[in-house]
């Protein structure tokens, strides 16, 4: 299988057109689909399946967000700001197939919203207003920070090392509201407290990954509304390793938004948490009693 980058200096230059939030969402979703398509084809080839013709990827300094001629310095003009996790397996630009000068990226474990993060976003809003159309919270499945928060919640006695380390604790503490929301939704779905069931932990991690992204999005939308009600829209999604997709529901459905608008209040957040629980529980015929939920986070 050949993957060919091809540069034609005489090809017409098409300027990027991202006039509004919908166009920004569309570009990110299409970029995630491009990333998935390329990886899918390579994985099929690994299995010995025919992948047909070479894959030709047109490229130029312009499409890479770089100057066409030597020595020039580009003006910073990202169309979206992304708050993502530091996890090395989820590089923001690669997941969305974006390049230089497209995204203003903030990465912190658990994609939580700290004051420094917020300061960076305010900088972007103030100085990059012309180009910035969207703010995205990007969570991911099997997140170590989310897992630490879940474990701290389930077994507080075993996590003295986190409790005594202020910087780490401040991260984990911020995820607790998502853990509690996910726990409440799971208990509502199942009808009873279930913290002693074998597979509860991994299910709670799966649900909390989505709820945590929604919580950060809700907080961020409120903060940005205080600054400017006409500012960029906030959306959120979660990267799933198996599907390679960014999606806002555990069960992928093409008709549903891949990047969903931030919940506006506690009720919308709670409704979303219950929706996520319903989908997680329906996937793979999950059964808490048999402990057959998804593999635990290592
Ligand atoms: Zn993470």
Layout of strands and helices, then pairs:
Layout: E1 3-6, H1 21-46, E2 55-58, E3 80-84, H2 92-95, E4 103-107, H3 115-127, E5 134-140, H4 144-154, H5 160-163, H6 166-190, H7 200-227, E6 233-239, E7 246-247, E8 260-261, H8 266-282
Parallel strand pairs: 1-2, 3-4, 3-5, 5-6
Antiparallel strand pairs: 6-7, 6-8
Structural overview:
This protein has helices at 21-46, 92-95, 115-127, 144-154, 160-163, 166-190, 200-227, 266-282; strands spanning 3-6, 55-58, 80-84, 103-107, 134-140, 233-239, 246-247, 260-261. With 298 residues, the protein is of the alpha/beta class. It has a single domain (18-64, 74-285), classed as Carbonic anhydrase (Beta-carbonic Anhydrase, Chain A), CATH 3.40.1050.10. Helix 4 (144-154) crosses helix 6 (166-190) and helix 6 packs across helix 8. The longest helix is centred in the C-terminal third of the chain and has 28 residues, at 200-227. Residues 85, 87, 109-110, 140, 143-145 line the site of zinc ion.
Say which molecules are bound, naming each kind only once: zinc ion
Q: Tell me, what's the shape? A: globular
What average pLDDT do the residues reach? 89
CATH topology: Beta-carbonic Anhydrase, Chain A
**Which structural class should the secondary elements be placed in?**
alpha/beta
Short summary:
The protein is an alpha/beta fold.
Key descriptive features of the protein:
Beta-carbonic Anhydrase, Chain A, 6-stranded mixed sheet, single chain, two-stranded parallel ribbon, 8 strands, 298 residues, alpha/beta, disordered C terminus, binds zinc ion
